């Protein structure tokens, strides 16, 4: 099976889980912007991902070939490539998640990138579908700054693929309308209750908080964690999110028009 099949299976599972144990029972299934977000799932998760994945792989292989004479880690079958598959998976998971934490920081702190990331933060009601609500330019940023360096390391492509599948499942979990607690593991792993505060529309606790995808540990370690355990944000979004168009075509154009 390819990535699209796993994405479809994971998404179907969260449709069921949200019905069984919703954190917000009154949140409608057919919520506003749902059609837009389903398009983002299909486009970002499959069609565009296939195109950028092919380009990323080509760039990574070319870069590795150029670096082989001077960088031993880029040689196929050395170091990471000789580790057992399970250790490669753990290494790629930790490395990719930390890189995603760094890129996510950039998306919030660099004004040009924030204009594109606003599309993701304009979601009005949180559920699993929001995990893939992001502008196509974000795919370019993540693929360039995340997958190109990882693909150059010479490890197992299978391990990197399964990290992508696992990260997708955990991203769905973070955004899901689920009433689930992971207890003390919340200091290591991200969760729906903690990630909800990342989408807080106010500046409580600062506007830059909880950047982790799989691991919350990066936020606790670097001082960007904020999680009042006794309540949820009054509203999700971002300050001034009324500027975001409601229809899909204008949402895609919005960051470019905003920049001008």
Q: How would the blueprint of this fold be written?
A:
Layout: H1 3-20, H2 34-67, H3 85-109, H4 111-121, H5 136-151, H6 157-175, H7 192-198, H8 217-222, H9 248-259
Helix pairs in contact: 1-6, 2-5, 3-4, 3-5, 3-6, 4-9
Your description of this structure?
The N and C termini lie far apart (42 Å). Helices cover 57% and strands 0% of the residues. It is globular. It has helices at 3-20, 34-67, 85-109, 111-121, 136-151, 157-175, 192-198, 217-222, 248-259. The model has no long low-confidence stretch (mean pLDDT 87). It has one domain.
What gross morphology would you assign?
A: globular
Q: What proportion of the residues is helical, as a percent range?
A: 55-70%
Q: Give the termini separation.
A: 42 Å
- Mean pLDDT across all amino acids: 87
The tally of beta strands, per DSSP, is 0
Whole-number tally of structural domains: 1
Question: Which consecutive residue ranges, at least 5 long each, have pLDDT under 50?
Answer: none
Portion in strands: under 5%
Helix and strand pattern: HHHHHHHHH
């Amino acid at each position: 099976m390819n990535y699209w099949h796993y994405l479809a299976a994971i998404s179907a599972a969260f449709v069921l889980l949200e019905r069984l144990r919703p954190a917000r029972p009154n949140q409608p299934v057919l919520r506003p912007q749902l059609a837009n977000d389903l398009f983002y799932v299909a486009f970002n998760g499959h069609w565009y991902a296939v195109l950028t994945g092919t380009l990323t792989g080509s760039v990574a292989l070319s870069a590795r070939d150029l670096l082989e004479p001077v960088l031993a880690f880029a040689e196929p079958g050395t170091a990471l490539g000789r580790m057992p598959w399970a250790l490669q998976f753990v290494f790629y998971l930790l490395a990719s998640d930390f890189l995603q934490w760094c890129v996510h920081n950039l998306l919030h702190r660099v004004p040009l990138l924030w204009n594109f990331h606003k599309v993701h933060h304009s979601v009005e009601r949180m559920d699993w579908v929001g995990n893939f609500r992001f502008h196509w330019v974000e795919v370019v940023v993540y693929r360039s700054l995340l997958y190109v360096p990882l693909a150059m390391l010479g490890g197992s492509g299978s391990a990197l693929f399964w990290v992508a599948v696992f990260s997708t499942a955990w991203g769905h979990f973070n955004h899901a309308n689920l009433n689930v607690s992971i207890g003390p593991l919340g200091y290591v792993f991200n969760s729906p209750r903690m990630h909800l505060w990342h989408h807080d529309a106010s500046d409580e606790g600062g506007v830059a908080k909880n950047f982790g995808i799989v691991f919350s540990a990066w936020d606790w370690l670097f001082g960007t964690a904020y999680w009042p355990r006794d309540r949820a944000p009054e509203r999700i979004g971002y300050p001034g999110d009324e500027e975001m168009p409601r229809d899909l075509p204008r949402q895609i154009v919005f960051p470019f028009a905003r920049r001008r």
